[in-house]
Each structure stands twice: as structure tokens, then as C-alpha cells.
Amino acid sequence: MLDHLFPEWVQPVVIPPTTKERYLSFYQALNLRRLTEVTGDWHYCHFFYCTADRPPVPVVLAGEGMAVNTNPSLGTLGIRNMADELVEKKIILPTNNPVWTANHFRAIADLALREIGFPYQRWIITVNEVNQWLDTKKQVDELVANYLAPLRQQKKGRDRAVYVEWLQTIRFQ
Questions:
Q1: Of 7-16, 42-51, 111-120, which gets the smallest average pLDDT?
Q2: How far is CA 63 from the centre of its chain?
Q3: Burial grade of 17 (CB within 10 A; 0-12, 13-18, 19 or more)
Q4: How far are the Cα atoms of 30, 53, 74, 172 from residue 83, in angstroms, in the given order?
Q5: CA–CA separation, 150 vs 123, rounded Å?
């Protein structure tokens, strides 16, 4: 256990076993990066720790068998093993098991698939949020071309029309 690494009132969240097809994503993935990556939100404490007076909150995964699955459109694009980084941040104990995690582009795509089509909100991820998560026009263009545009095929009917309309709003500012 990681008890000796934290104050008594803090504990890490529970990360379930992952595979390349079922992986850590959403806001948790947005807050992880490799040293060579320039993207990232840097608020990992908020998403990976909780107070010890509550049961640890399991992390919700994306992918095969989960509520959000971008694999039909993206395969394993943007999925990488982040176990070393999670160990370095003292979120998990050293392990030989990989912790498959979405990169920033894939995490945004997973968020988009999850959030576009909510009945009471036209779209949730705004161009301003994307521009907070990514730093350059090249990054935003890569996100749109390689991650967001292919997701159109997973939307049908009205949700697809809303998604296409939303996709046209995503640009670098």
C-alpha cells in the first residue's frame, strides 16, 4: 500500500487494470504527460487523490466494454503505457504491469464522444477548453484531423449533425 507516501488524510484513487483496448482517459489522462510532451493540464492531484475519510474512487476507463468507446474509429491510436509516470507521481506502486493511458488528443476525443449529444446541452467541450489543453495550431489541427474527424462515423442522426456542427468550431485561437 502507499500509506507511507501520503499524509494520513490523503489516498490515491483506484486505477483498475487496463489494456490497450480499455484504458485510462478523460480528465485523468489530460493531467498526465511524458517529459517529452508539451501538452498537459498539470492538475493531477485533483484527479488522482482523494481524502482518506472516503472510499477511494475508482477511475472510469474508456474503450472496449465501457460507456465511451472510440476504438471503432481510432483503434489504439494515442494509447500509451504511463505506468512509470504514475509511479513517479506516487499514484501507484512500482509495477511491471502497464497502465494504458490516452494521450491528450485521445482523451479529448473520448470526452467529445461522451459529451456531444447530451440532451440538455448542445456541446460541452468548447474551443476555449481545447485551446487550454493544447498549445499550438499544429496540435489543434492534429486533434481535429486525426482524432475528432474520424469520430463522425460513430454518431448517427441528430447526434451526428450536432457533432459535425461542433467539430467546425474547433480551431486554434
A1: 42-51
A2: 11
A3: exposed
A4: 15, 26, 22, 31
A5: 18
Please list, in sequence order, all residues whose beta carbon lies within 8 angstroms of the beta carbon of residue 23, skipping any fewer than 6 positions away. 61, 62, 63, 79, 100, 101, 102
pLDDT tens for residues 27-57? 889 888 887 776 655 566 667 777 778 777 6
Residue type, 4: H
Where does residue 164 fall: left (phi above 0), alpha (psi -120 to 50 degrees), or beta otherwise?
A: alpha
Residue in the block written with cell 474520424: 150
Number of Cα atoms under 13 Å in the Cβ half of residue 117: 17
Across 71-87, b (16+ Cβ under 10 Å) vs e yields bebbeebbbbebbebbe
pTM for the whole thing?
0.86
* Helix, strand and coil in the chain, % to nearest 5: 40, 10, 45
